[in-house]
Design goal:
GO cellular component, one term (chain B): cytoplasm
Structural class of chain A: alpha/beta
Distance between the termini of chain A: 58 Å
Organism (chain A): Taibaiella chishuiensis
InterPro entries (chain B): GRASP_w_spasm
Number of helices of chain A: 11
Oligomer: heterodimer
Number of helices of chain B: 9
Order of helices and strands of chain A: EEEEHEEHHEHEHEHEHHEEEHEEHEEH
Number of strands of chain A: 17
Largest interface: A-B, 26 and 30 residues
Number of domains of chain A: 2
Strand order of the largest sheet of chain A: 12-13-11-10-9-8-14-15
Radius of gyration of chain B: 22 Å
Protein name (chain A): SPASM domain peptide maturase of grasp-with-spasm system
Number of domains of chain B: 3
Organism (chain B): Taibaiella chishuiensis
Number of strands of chain B: 19
Structural class of chain B: alpha+beta
Chain lengths: 355, 329
């Protein structure tokens, strides 16, 4: 065999210190030493004859072992010169038919009074797929059910809901009832619960119910970067090649009713009482962060996780620089180590600035 | 009006409608499940044609669903008369399906009647390799055929599923998948046994399998590495949830693409999912074509813009459609 070829939905992402192979079909991430990563032509094909020529004894056998592991993990396969051209690289276009992919609505009081039929119609026009409702105050059962009924018949594909944990709702099995009744709920997260655990595991197209002891009572809780939030799939990967991983096609309404790209950002593009979502969206500046790709962001551009990462443009290491590293990321791609971001001495100034 | 006939839980239909809305379509009519033509009218003359089912037709996509038999109860006690009614109704639905297929359209209800045997004949005539195939219920013939190959397989002639309603709450769904017909099972057959004729084919060793979506001359191909996984070695449709088969974009040789186009024209099917095998000696062997095959599986794993191109076709947005074809060649 002439080549070791990566399956085209297993993409090699090189970082400063090492690389990853992101298996976009199965959702796994495999770290790979830089030495091996650099041997791939066009980041896909490893010429086996060349490898044996160029690399010396011990290193060669170590690399061949790694290669066997890649084949055993079904990330790559052996092929000949003829076959190689039959396996083209993955199309990198981001295929997502929506003017707005996600809409985030924050409520301090537990009420979202603007959430009416005409508001749902606005979201429909924008082809909005996903909705996130973040309640920092407890919504009345009738109010939330009214919202869920509107969503049920709309084009929205799924909704994630954050609510304060409430003993009376728990006793009445209200949360479980919502999950069973409204299939579009992908997850219902009750914050401030007595303990953290999964109450209903989301299986077979059902939503999951999660209790967390954390206090998620303001929008400032957003923007944390960690491996658990990585999203290893074709949609995230291709979006990250062309657009900002966090802010592209997002719209939100903060607790005051201001229409923003993200609730944690300062720029407002009108108030929901007198501005429509599309009016806000088309105001100059609304989309100014949408084209900041990970390849333009300091530090991130050297990170092997850059195409599976969530990113954050609201909280930055250097608040003055739109292309600065996310503040709440504790990963150092130059050493390959994770640290607790909030303890980092370099971040204290920015922490003082935002919080 | 863009008319789509499908099922309510058919995901690719949802995806195409997302693209239609995104691209600005405003008049979309989706019919789900069983469609009765009883209260509908079909008008045909030399100037135009019109079915009340969809009104002014801009484009029509038959994805799934049925024109259902809906015969009013006249109290007729004679089975022969019932059969006559059913035939009449069937000709009406097929005629309507034909009328719709002559509009700017993708697939037709009549494509469901596509015939595996006919398709093998036409594939061979189009220059494609096909497996050696025997269709019989004759045990002697089966034994002689089995002696020619290390292994043979068997599959149904028409349908790979039996769906039967038991009562209003219960129905059964039996999969009739492709299976290896083992040597000892063949040996155990006695010449006096009677059974339904079935398809027997030489078992093909596979390097990988191909799923090819054909759509008005365009081809989107995917390689399936089914041999990595024991459960899918015989029939890749037996999906393994834990370890899904590796599925990646594949570029067919030009001459093979042309043969597939010619084959699809011969069987007059403007869209379908073609299954092929690549053998260890790099032969491309045609297996079958399914007019209403799974799409998300192919477009999702290969990042092909299939759903967008379907939407553009329905919107008569041909110019961009052709440009995309170029990218795929």
């Amino acid at each position: 065999m002439d080549y070791l070829l990566l399956y085209s939905n297993c993409v090699l992402v090189k970082g400063a210190n090492r690389a990853t192979i992101c298996d976009l079909q199965k959702g796994d991430i495999y770290p790979v030493p830089k030495l091996l990563a650099d041997l791939f032509q066009e980041d896909r094909a490893l010429d086996l004859a060349l490898l044996k020529e160029q690399v010396q004894d011990e290193t060669a056998s170590w690399l061949l072992q790694l290669i066997d592991t890649l084949v055993a993990s079904q990330l790559a396969f052996y092929c000949n010169r003829q076959e190689r051209k039959r396996f083209p690289a993955l199309h990198t276009e981001w295929l997502f038919p929506a003017h707005v992919s996600h809409c985030i609505l924050d409520s301090a009081t537990g009420r979202l009074d603007y959430f009416t039929e005409s508001f749902i119609a606005q979201l429909g026009k924008l082809c909005c797929n996903f909705l996130q409702l973040r309640f920092f105050g407890t919504p009345a059962i009738t109010h939330l059910e009214h919202i869920l009924r509107l969503i049920k018949d709309a084009q929205i594909k799924s909704v994630e809901i954050l609510v304060p944990w409430n003993a009376a709702y728990e006793n009445a099995h209200t949360y479980a009832k919502w999950i069973n009744e409204y299939k579009k709920i992908s997850s219902l997260i009750c914050w401030g619960a007595p303990s953290t655990h999964v109450v209903i595991p989301g299986v077979e197209a059902m939503g999951y119910l999660l209790y967390t002891g954390e206090q998620i009572n303001t929008a400032t809780h957003c923007g944390i970067i960690n491996q658990g939030l990585f999203s290893t799939n074709i949609t995230t990967y291709t979006e990250s090649l062309h657009f900002n991983s966090c802010l592209n096609r997002k719209i939100s309404i903060d607790v005051q009713g201001n229409i923003k790209n993200c609730p944690s950002m300062t720029d407002s593009f009108g108030h929901i009482t007198d501005t429509s979502l599309s009016e806000a969206l088309n105001k100059p500046g609304f989309k100014r962060y949408w084209h900041i790709t990970k390849d333009q962001i300091a530090v991130c551009k050297d990170c092997e996780f850059r195409h599976v990462c969530t990113d954050c443009r609201a909280y930055l290491e250097d608040p003055e620089d739109a292309c600065s590293k996310p503040l709440k990321c504790g990963y150092d791609p130059y050493t390959g180590e994770w640290e607790e971001w909030s303890q980092h001495p370099m971040k204290q100034k920015a922490i003082a600035y935002y919080f | 009006m863009i008319a789509i006939q499908s099922h309510s839980d058919e995901a690719s239909t949802d995806d195409v409608i997302d693209w239609l809305l995104y691209l600005g379509a405003d008049r979309i009519k989706r019919l789900n499940g069983n469609v009765s033509l009883n209260k509908e009218t079909l008008r045909i003359n030399n100037d135009s044609g019109h079915s009340s089912l969809f009104g002014e037709l801009q484009a029509y996509w038959y994805r799934r669903g049925y024109f259902t038999l809906d015969i009013p109860d006249t109290g007729n006690p004679y089975p022969a008369v019932t059969t006559y009614f059913e035939k009449e109704y069937e000709y009406y639905t097929n005629g309507t399906a034909h009328f719709l297929s002559k509009q700017h359209s993708i697939n037709s209800f009549c494509d469901n009647h596509t015939n595996k045997i006919t398709n093998l004949v036409e594939a061979a005539r189009a220059g494609l390799l096909i497996p050696d195939t025997l269709i019989t219920a004759d045990v002697k013939e089966i034994k002689a055929f089995a002696a020619l190959y290390p292994r043979i397989i068997t599959k149904a002639i028409a349908h790979n599923r039996i769906a039967a309603t038991i009562d209003s709450d219960t129905y059964i769904n039996i999969a009739v998948d492709t299976a290896i017909f083992d040597r000892d099972m063949i040996d155990a057959l006695s010449a006096e046994q009677h059974f339904l004729p079935a398809v027997f084919q030489e078992y093909l060793e596979k390097k990988y399998e191909l799923r090819i979506f054909y759509f008005h001359g365009r081809l989107y191909s995917m390689a399936i590495f089914s041999q990595l996984n024991e459960a899918t070695r015989i029939d890749f449709r037996k999906h393994d949830r834990e370890t899904p088969n590796r599925c990646v974009p594949y570029q067919l040789p030009d001459d093979l693409e042309n043969k597939l186009r010619s084959f699809m024209q011969r069987i007059a099917m403007n869209s379908g999912s073609i299954d092929m095998v690549v053998t260890p000696s790099d032969d491309y062997v045609f297996l079958e074509v399914n007019p209403v095959g799974q799409l998300q599986w192919l477009s999702g794993n290969c990042n092909y813009p299939v759903e967008r191109e379907i939407a553009k076709f329905l919107l008569h947005d041909q110019e961009t459609g052709n440009r995309t074809t170029e990218n795929h060649r």
